[in-house]
User: Fold these one by one.
Assistant:
Number 1:
Amino acid sequence: MTAPAPGGRVTSTEPLVPAPQASRRPPAVTLAGVSKQFRLPGRDLLALRDVSLEVGEGEFVSVIGPSGCGKSTLLRLVAGLIEPSAGTIVIAGEPPAQARARRELGFVFQEPTLLPWRTALENVTLLLEVARRGSAAQRRQRGLELLRLVGLAEFADARPAKLSGGMQRRVGIARALALDPKILLMDEPFGALDEITRQRMNMELLNVWAQRATTALLVTHNVGEAVFLSDRVLVMAANPGRMIAEVTVGLPRPRRLDLLEDKDFFALSARLTRQLHSGEASGAEPAR
Amino acid sequence: MIRRASPVLASFGVWLALLGIWWLIAVTQQRPGTLWPTPAQVAVTLWQLRGAFASNAGTTVEEAALGFAAAVVLAVVIALAGEWYRPLAASLQRLAIGVYSLPLIALAPALVLWTGSGLTTKVIIAALAAFFPVLINLTQALRSTNPNALELMRAGGASSWQAFRRVELPYALPVLFAAFTIAAPAAILGAMLAEWVGANSGLGIQLLNSMQNDDVPELYASLAVASLLSLVAWLVFTMAGRWLFPWHASQQRTGAGGRQ
């Protein structure tokens, strides 16, 4: 439908070579040689092995991989919710726990995870209350602004049970943005949605991201979603969880839904799918 | 409209049918002093002895209420202690199960020996009867808080107190109220049980006396009052739960919360 713009060429690099575009921006998130081992009864599980990556300031990076490849673990490490077994993580120059304490991270979960007794607005302002930021009136103002941003202003006083799945996820995104985080971490935020709703949510997410100029790190198992949203896509394989490829998405922004019919979009999606399968085929490596 | 009204009609119909069966049996079996007074005879007895029933019910309610309150305070303290300091939880739980498996009917005489046949014995027995459901449900509720909601709070830099107050406690409260609907009738039962061992007034003692006097209508009337008390206790906490936590899943299914 749309003719590919001049910048719309597929400028993907070979696996594991840092993209030139990424290195130009100062890093917002840096992982160096990060491994994570979980102690389970009777055995140790190597969830992540030697993962290194960089996310530039203002960049949108997606991580894709099969279930059980440690994508969520990666995100939880970046959020400082768990500690790495080896390696270092730096977020805007400081360790994750500190970034978390300074409220520089916004987190969107697989499930919307709204508190059922709070209205949409009260869910959005929850973390502002926790951070004791602003007066009640200011928090309310800010909450309403964010709800407007995700198109839910008229549902401010509705409890989650009255909202559809897509609306609940939009509230979740508004809530993650409430503290004006430098980095937005998203763990398959639209995983449970139908395809049409998912695409609409992707568009809205891009709008929000472009307006707020935040750095975004998204985990997904949907190749199309990763290509549509991202500047760069990282591919993971399971057993143990590891990075196997990196693809730069040179598609022009702002992106529109007709991009889904673009041949460059198809080429990139096909390439990522192949890489996912090659990761599957290489299969489980013996733990070291 | 019809679907909404039909459960009410149905339960009304069941009660009416039971009353009818009772009346039929009473009429066909009736000889003076038999086991089956008619519903009307029981109603007359209730009315004639209304003063005695009111004062006896008052005594039992007082014992049960004090016991219930003591049980709730104790159970909440123990559940929270177990939650905040996990190593304590297992031994507290074992202690609670030990207390639960004490046969109250056997414990009551021993308590009378220690504390006399005054209010204290009844309150303790009522508390023991109410304690366990509150403790178990609250412990369960505190552990089954949505883990994602807690991670959300942590990721947002919340302290564990903030997470407790804003997430764990609100999640646990509806479950606590559900436990109250079981514990409150249990406390009334406990109080009446304790009265059997020795008391000057109370529904339990009235029940026992009417049995020993072969006053069958009064026995049935006492039974009716005791059931009514338990029903009211249950109803109070059920309605309070619906009113306070209309968002809770248990309230949405019943439909009476008014959401669907």
Number 2:
Amino acid sequence: MRTLILLASLSLTSAFAAPVTLNLNIMNGTQPFNGALTTSAGQTIQTTMWQMYISNVALVRGDGTEVAVPGLNLIKLDGKGPFQNILAFKGDAPAGEYRGIRFDVGVPRTLNHVDASTQKEPLGLDAGMFWAWNPGYIFSRYEGKVTIGNQTTDVYLHMGEDKRRLTVDLADTMKPGTAISVGAAGKTVNISLDASKMVSSGVNSGKFDLSDAQYLQVHGGPVADQLYLNLSGAFSLTGAPQASAAPMDMGK
Amino acid sequence: MKRFLTVLCSLTGLGSAVALLTTLPVSAPAPPENPLTPEKIALGKRLFFDPVLSRDRTVSCSSCHDPQHAFADPAGQAISPGVQGRLGRRNAISLINAGDRGALTWSGASPNLETQAVIPMTDHAELDLTIEEVVTRLSADPQYPALFQQVFRSAPSVQNTVRALASFERTLESRNAPYDRYQAGDAAAFTAQQARGMDLFFGKADCFHCHTGRDFSDGRAHNNAIQLFNPDLGVAERTELEGDVGKFVTPSLRNVGLTAPYMHDGSFKTLQEVVRHYNEGGEPNPNADGLIRPLGLSATETDDLVAFLKTLDDPSIAGNPAFQESR
């Protein structure tokens, strides 16, 4: 009987949760991001804030099945940084061998339409991520200042709504190079976000030109759609091939 | 449902002193996350009238929601100016009985008073603060940190600011108009003309289809064909659906005689103008509600209808001390 109990406890040990951490490094192309963001039109935004929700994290097995890592986190950065080694997310998952990781930039649909005035942080009103005049949360809230000529203007690049929930897939079951081995002590997964991609393309293959007013205060519409497209190629596992994101579901 | 509660309260030092034994005012029901207390209401009232919540400290909630005009725009103003005189796009909706309504703002953007309060606080053309600046501003105030501690046992936050404001707004209840007294059995509350107008409202003029219920609003969005093209998208700003362009939530008709001008943009100056618009069938807007059509009202019937609408006014609101800024 004692042997059976020991065997049972040993088998359960492998199922115990291990801490999984997403460590985010924000880049500017190949260089570490320092708060200055240059658009494809050559204008430089001085970042004053960047906040984004990370949720719906899952570790992906080699057979394509997933293990959910419960939790939701709000990354909060001001203009001063640091922009490297940011704790993007922390949760628990069973130890084991995985082929990669997948997560959403945004708030799950089941939470995206709750009454924010009743929620605890980071979903409460004080997080500054709730659109009072639109249904749901801001998934990525980037703000800064740009000087064009002798005029300095605020820039608000806010992306949200269910159809712009960005799924970042950093798991390629065909490529062992993306393997993530989660031991009993847990695993820190390093991911990169190339900030320059966010402002790399404008609407209809144009430039992301801040002299055009539509790019200055973005809360929805075609430019928010473009932000979604731009960000969908911006994440990667550090040292691994670029991420792919699920196509935008206009019917969501 | 109205509730009367009697609670024991200590003196709070909140400007308007709360008696040892006090009664909560008549109010709209409060959500469980934000129960009403006299202290919270008093704090909310103070915030409502305080321009501290605006960027240039010149504008408060009461600047657009004037107690003298049923907490709608001050007399004659289509759109009240915000900080630095900036003008927004829409006429301020009356806050009377707003606590009983679900879809708040002209586009129905907010399900409750708490989330609605964030809109004007952060709107560039209204109070123009960021969420972070609201907290910084209140935390730096010589009195608010202590007041928030008394009420919420915590430092100022946006969450608790809107809870306090909503609590005060839930007390802005009024259903003591001539219409209410007439419905309660006081036949002398109406003139014959007003009674004829009421019959038209619930009959030939078809107003009741949208202006229904005890506050004369169905809480739904309609395009009432006031314009051929809609520069203000209304509900479509949120839904991005073409069929929602130009739809706005039906406003309450309570105190309508006190809250001129009318429509989401304040473009109709008088009630006669409003009735004439509906009588003529509106503009041929592609999203116009199917009920908008010529009504065939005579000039006399128009006057009768306007006379009835004015029975929904409660002039006591302007003089109610509970609704005025505490000195």
Number 3:
Amino acid sequence: MIDVEHLRKSFQAGTQTIRAVDDVSFHVAPAEVFGLLGPNGAGKTTTMRMILGLLQADSGFAAIQGFRSDQKPDEVKKRVGFVSANAGTYQWLTPREILTFFGDVYGLRLDAIRQRISELSELLGIGPFLDQRSSTLSTGQRQRINLARALVHDPPVMLLDEPTLGLDVIGSQIIFDYIQMLCARNKAIILCTHSLDQAQRICHRFALLHQGRIVHSGSLGQLQQETGREHLVDMFVDLLRASRELMPASVAAMAGPAVGGEGDR
Amino acid sequence: MSTSRPGWDAGVGRFRRLALKELRETLRDRRTVVTLLLMPLLVYPLLSVIIRSFLLTGAVQAPTDRPIEYRVMFDYQGGSETEFNIWFSQLIEDIQRLEAAEVPLLRPYLQQTQPAMARFTENQFQAGQDVRAAIEHGDADVGAVVRIPPQANQRQPQPVEVEFIANQASSYSRNGLKYLRDYFEAVNQSRLERRGLWDDSYLRISEKLFVDKDKQGSQALSFGTLIPLILVLMTITGAVYPSIDLTAGERERGTLEALIAAPIPRMQILVAKFVAVLTVALLTATLNLIGMLVTVWAFKLEQLVFQADRPSWVAIAQVFGLLLLYAAFFSSLLLAVTSLARSFKEAQAYLIPLILLALAPSVVSLLPGLSISGWLAVVPMINFVLLARDIFQGTVAFGPGLIVITCTLLYSAVALMLASRVFGTDAILYGSHESFKDTVRRPASPQATASPFLAMLSLAFIFAAQFVSLTFLARLSDMEMPLLLLLLGGLTLAYYGLLPAGLAVYQRIDWRSGFGLQRFGTLAGVAALLMGVALWPATMGIVTFSQTVLNWFGQTEAAQELQQRLVAGGAKYVERLQTVPFAWVWLTHALIPAICEEFYFRGFFMQALLRTARRPWKVIVATGIVFGLFHVLSESSIDRLLPSTLMGILLSYVCWRTGSVIPGMILHVLHNGVVIGLAYYHQQIAQIQWLGAGDAQLPTGLLLAVSLIALLGFALLQWSPRPAVDTATRARLDI
């Protein structure tokens, strides 16, 4: 369903070249949740954007149901529902207007859009605030609207980039439950998240990215075997320690527990 | 997906809904509504209060205890001094009688300006004195020229004609004219009532306003320009907020990425946003125009703004059209600038310099006595304000209007294309700074052609630069002819030859594919040769035809005067050309322009547009029209539009059909050479009666032969083999 082959992408920052994504390959099957995990700046978001065709890869390619995003971006976009970390909503429109608009943009007929909205409002529990102006909604409600927006055209593939960012424990839990439900509906899902416990619970396979490269990949069992660690959190800590050892001691001390801080790439 | 609409690409309906969504989002925002409604409601009444209370204390004539005096100077023509004296004493008698009776006949205007009086200047009774000069020198405020008809042998009594003269630039003088006119009409009325019949005591009244540029310069502000300036500034203000909100604002809120992730072309999203911004700008413009008109009407400022008692609806419609054009230009410019920003704040920071940049020329346009010519016609804002002023005051001319409109259209196209290059790019969406620089940066690999953006940018630059240069050259008309021709040739070479060549070197554009400098078949070459030598009667016929059509449409005095001036100017120019050897004329009028124009229009420009065009005929026609417009500009003559456009289309077709720019160059050089040769040697040709005697039509035999040659040329062009794909170039450039 999703094929990623040797993707590479570099960015220029002043005179420096930063390798955001370096030879990343993986495959995701229908009814599978693939966890793309890594610290900030690991290259997760850039990979997602290249899969969708929002960014051009320097080399390599990504394909959805056989359509390459560098060659047929519109075919790819039609098949993907995308929720990004910082997705917002149109504050002056109501969720119903937003969903109708996106349904229209994805080429759905008006009656089909109406039916889809009623399905989604049942599925995601957005019915009560469908006709409220978006600026009056809570963060959790808005994130559910974003999920509904990404699902309005019933895509076979979902790309979820930090869909629980800014949500409290309950809000996050609701979203993760929905993800499991989508998986049960045969969708291929790539999930980027920092909620490692939740990821460990719902993802079928993982790729651990660090500085643009896949360091470990496979099922939880394979990862445990490879790293000798029980939990994803411990695997992560090892990764971060490795990169801290490369830093000068003074910088590492200042950097604190987290590495990076340049924002997601 | 069974729920999908049929015809995915037939996106007209979707585009409409896309634009509607943008518009709905904008109009629900109360900040937009505030700019839209409150500003016109506040600005114009406030402005009119300022005008009335501060700037015009002398001119509007607020009632005072002291009577206002108008110094009136009389001049008389036609009769003797005695006749004039008798006529004048009768007039004074009537006026005194009217004043004594407190005159119900006097019109409202007169009542409004009461108490007022006219004091006649001392040397009022001299015949043939220059009333206008007296007003200009400040010796009088208003003048009256009295024409007394000869009374001898007159069966039917003729009325005395009185022509009032006032300085249009001075409101005091204009008010004096109104005062006098109303008084004289009241006199007419009272005489009619007393005698019951129209007779020789009836005064035939007319008015004449002159523009005194020196006096106009002494006015601190010209309100005719202030109002259009405020109109255009308000229109821009209306567009600022939505353009930021729909680009940088949307990015900041995180909705832009979701939109870009949908299967719609970025250009469609951008154009929908453009339509929304333009609509808001137009709503602002409409409300402002209404606000301005209501204020002008309510505060009786018609004379100041329109220099007439009431505004002309045609003028208002024209100004609205101009505002539409400007709204389009600024909407695309604002979108281009705000698309660069990643946040609302950043967009505001970018817009402040832009608004200041727009204000600077606007302030220049407020200087009194400016006219649309030279660089003023191509600088945005100034050209709008001056053109709108001329429209409001009914003094607009066709030529400058066309130049302003063409310039603004070109600038709008460039701005929109720039916006499309910037909008939603990786750089803006994801924070890298590199992509915007790509638009001006030297590409790493060779390019097959220039980008359409670069083509439009160069076109706008050449249009403006050439206009300014030609205006400058026109001022140096006393220059020696060889030097003038040298400069003209140099300019053509610089704009159409060196500029595109320089751009090609910098942008690594392939000479062969980027300029159409390809090989061509023998048949194509012969075809170009035949058409080149035989198309001149067709050109002459089209020139005559378009002159006839223009005469039908433009039966006004001004149009006829312009036409005569053009014909006379043309004849004079040919005379001057004849002082220079023909080779020199041929070089500067045939060889250099033809080669360079083909190099640019059919080479650089058309090849760039053809790169992405789905339908070449559109590019062929568009290139022809652009070519025609440029010739109207360079010859300052509207009759060049049709022949040059048709010739442009033909040359573009020849280039496309042969796959090379060279046959067009041959055609163009020969055609120009023949036409300029016929003009240069017209006396000799007339002597040998080769083309028939004088201005008569061409001999039928000659016409037939030449037409056959041209047709044969065209047929050969059609028979010539289609251009082969230049595989070497394509492979090298990976296209």
Number 4:
Amino acid sequence: MRLIDENGLRVDGRRLDELRPIKMEVGLLDKADGSAYIEQGKNRIVAAVYGPREAHPKHIALVERAVIKCRYHMAPFSVEERKSPAPSRRELELSKVIREALETSIMSELYPRTSIDIFIEVLQSDGGSRCAGITAASLALADAGIPLREIVAACAVGKIEGKIALDPSDIEDKEGEADLPVAFMPKSNAITLIQMDGSFTEEEFNQALDTAIPACKKINEMQIEALKRKYVTVKEQAEERAA
Amino acid sequence: MTIFAEKKQLVAPGELLAEGSYFPGENTYREGNKIYASRIGLADSVANKLVVVPLKGCYVPRIDDFVIGRVVDIAMSGWIVDISAPYPAMLPLSETPAARGMTARKDLTRFFNVGDLVMAEVIAFDRTRDPLLTVRGRGLGKVSSGRVVHISPAKIPRLIGRKGSMISMLKKMTGCEIVVGQNGTVLVSGRQPKNEQTAVAAMFMIEREAHTRGLTDRVSEMMSRELR
């Protein structure tokens, strides 16, 4: 099948350098300390954060900082072929790399002997879910009031029919030649997650990274807007009532 | 040397607050000669120090804080109390007024049992150990009546107000007794259910709109409407 047509448009009508439509919402779960929801293309992902709270079991607690726990999980109905609810090897790996992507941003030294628990639940998956998951989880951490160096944004870049394409969807990831998910902290100018599936030449790799990083910066701006939106709306409504 | 954030500006983690020789205050951090916010909140500057007043965050105990907690377990020589902090607090038997060398578990329940609410003060807390409480002091001890409300601890300073102005207004207008714990737990008791309800509604309104201007007037207006 052809992924790119004569006009250079992809299967879903996007250009090579276009992100899928993204919507973010913060604070949707009031029982969690922090929460966020993201829609990116057909991805639907919820992230919830609990903590800092007592570490369970006690022996995993660290003396000088908080221990970060992360669980990335796909709901059985998130994909067409029912996915067994038991954690798969892929989910275990993603839980680990996502935790590492977020850990750098968390000022965990401020809460020794506690645990910060991050949950990412994929309700519908369509490619790039680990990146969207990181984007949502970082927002949830900020929503919980956990001190962060900054908010982490993530985006993937793929190679389809020899061309570098931003934010590949599931079909582009499966049929394409390579996939490069990247998580980035814009202020620190630091990459906190980078993985590669498939193959890039050195030049293609550099081009892919040069596409991913500005996209992450754009997503970061959306995250900050989503985080503030809740408070801005309350402020506007309150001041309107008073007027 | 510039301060980028305006007073009371809503800032998110990672936002640049100032550049130059300023000091990083609460909820900010310094990288090189730049000061960034580490939490979502309202930026402010006091002399040369940049701070962020947080809009969200867990309760971090401080020595001398007055807190209202719930007993969750009984230990060898005291009680474990949940004060909504990341750490469980310990109330030792020696810090109760009638301590007399009783150590048997069934004797301890004579003072406090699991599920009881206690008004206490934090007497010790640091990075290496869990908070320690005392109930020796005026107004401390088991809670026997009233309604319990949980507010985000970050909003407690707004609930109290400058020099207690906000909380005094609530107490005066509703005629209720209101005891505010620094950990976000508040005890309300009034003669009429309507007065109690109005006080509680005011507290939730303050919690939701803590970051807005003119809050005191709006709360006062809401309460007069409800109490009519």
